[in-house]
């Protein structure tokens, strides 16, 4: 009896589990701010942080303090936001489609963002000198537009099921990718810039990007966590969900909208970063339980910690900076293969 109870998957998130996850995230974030490519001294940076919080005397010069507060801190916060958005969206997509390999970019978000970013780079070459750069806003609009087009196409095909949405997403992504390729050929000198953006990175970010992404990701996170119990009900099947008073179509629309909003906000400030939405939810599922009341909040926290670590590796492992998407691919691709093998025969 005790053994069966121990093997039963957790269906509620224990406060101590969430607290432990938050402490890990806090520790990772502090280390990423303290340590960097430029050695400022861990003790001196910690003293600087304490001085700012308590009104003490800073041991850093004005330039060194600017590195901490204007470069490292906003980058760490943005990495946490983007990681939380992608991991939370990945968990939500996996719950909606009942497929452990579902990805935040599944319904054309990546293709839409890539197309919009390419149009800006090719047709507005002087945009980088603008006070407010149009590329993040274009990527945000393109990601939402790609998902919206997939949804409209899926509905017009006469169905609201997951299979119809997936097929619509594939068609829309293929079309938008073709448009992007065509636009690239109009100015081949911009191909390197486009692909650098598509590989993902946070090397040109600051506080403006943090404030740009924060409200959308925060709103999406609240909605997804509020829908966690409904995702558990959807896992029983549409007929069973209907018998319990849950409208499966409405739940899918709300969850996919929130997940797509989070993905679009992440893409707008970081480019395309793969595998976060697959790796983190699976690790949470293995370690903490199969209920989305556990998976979603822990995926948000775990995704933030994962991407902070990945970004720290990207900016310190080499004299130059690796694209962040390359680092996540090194970690995620082998993990994806393992997941594919372990779920063989259980995919819908």
UniProtKB/TrEMBL annotation:
UniProt subcellular location: Cell membrane
Topology with respect to the bilayer: Multi-pass membrane protein
TM region positions: 76-93, 105-127, 133-153, 165-183, 210-231, 251-284, 290-310, 322-340
GO process terms (BP): siderophore-iron import into cell
Main subcellular location: membrane
Keyword Cell membrane set for record: yes
Keywords: Cell membrane, Membrane, Transmembrane, Transmembrane helix, Transport
Cellular component, GO annotation: plasma membrane
MF (Gene Ontology): transmembrane transporter activity
Family to which the UniProt record says this protein belongs: Belongs to the binding-protein-dependent transport system permease family. FecCD subfamily.
Protein name as annotated: Iron complex transport system permease protein
InterPro entries reported in the protein's UniProt record: ABC_BtuC-like, ABC_transptr_permease_BtuC
SUPFAM superfamilies on file: ABC transporter involved in vitamin B12 uptake, BtuC
Superkingdom of this protein's organism: Bacteria
Gene3D superfamilies with a match to the protein in the record: ABC transporter involved in vitamin B12 uptake, BtuC
């Amino acid at each position: 009896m005790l053994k069966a109870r121990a093997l039963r998957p957790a269906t509620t998130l224990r406060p101590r589990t969430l607290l432990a996850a938050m402490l890990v995230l806090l520790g990772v974030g502090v280390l990423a701010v303290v340590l960097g490519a430029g050695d400022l001294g861990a003790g001196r940076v910690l003293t600087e942080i304490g001085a700012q919080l308590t009104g003490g005397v800073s041991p850093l010069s004005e330039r060194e303090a600017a590195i901490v507060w204007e470069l490292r801190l906003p980058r760490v916060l943005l990495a946490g936001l983007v990681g939380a958005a992608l991991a939370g969206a990945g968990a939500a997509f996996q719950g909606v489609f009942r497929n452990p390999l579902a990805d935040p970019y599944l319904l054309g978000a990546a293709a839409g963002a890539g197309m919009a970013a390419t149009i800006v780079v090719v047709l507005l070459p002087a945009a980088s000198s603008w006070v407010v750069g149009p590329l993040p806003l274009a990527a945000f609009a393109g990601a939402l537009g790609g998902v919206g087009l997939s949804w409209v196409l899926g509905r017009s095909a006469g169905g609201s099921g997951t299979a119809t949405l997936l097929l619509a997403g594939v068609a829309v992504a293929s079309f938008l990718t073709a448009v992007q390729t065509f636009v690239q050929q109009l100015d081949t000198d911009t191909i390197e810039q486009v692909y650098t953006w598509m590989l993902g990175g946070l090397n040109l970010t600051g506080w403006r990007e943090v404030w740009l992404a924060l409200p959308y990701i925060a709103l999406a996170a609240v909605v997804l966590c509020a829908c966690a119990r409904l995702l558990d009900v959807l896992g029983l099947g549409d007929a069973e969900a209907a018998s319990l008073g849950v409208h499966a179509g409405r739940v899918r629309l709300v969850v996919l909208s929130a997940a797509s909003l989070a993905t679009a906000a992440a893409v707008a400030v970081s480019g395309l970063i793969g595998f976060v939405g697959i790796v983190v939810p699976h690790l949470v599922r293995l370690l903490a339980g199969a209920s989305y009341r556990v998976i979603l909040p822990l995926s948000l926290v775990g995704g933030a910690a994962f991407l902070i670590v990945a970004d720290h590796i990207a900016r310190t492992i080499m004299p130059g900076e690796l694209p962040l998407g390359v680092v996540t691919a090194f970690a995620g691709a082998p993990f994806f293969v393992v997941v594919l093998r372990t779920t063989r025969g259980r995919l819908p």
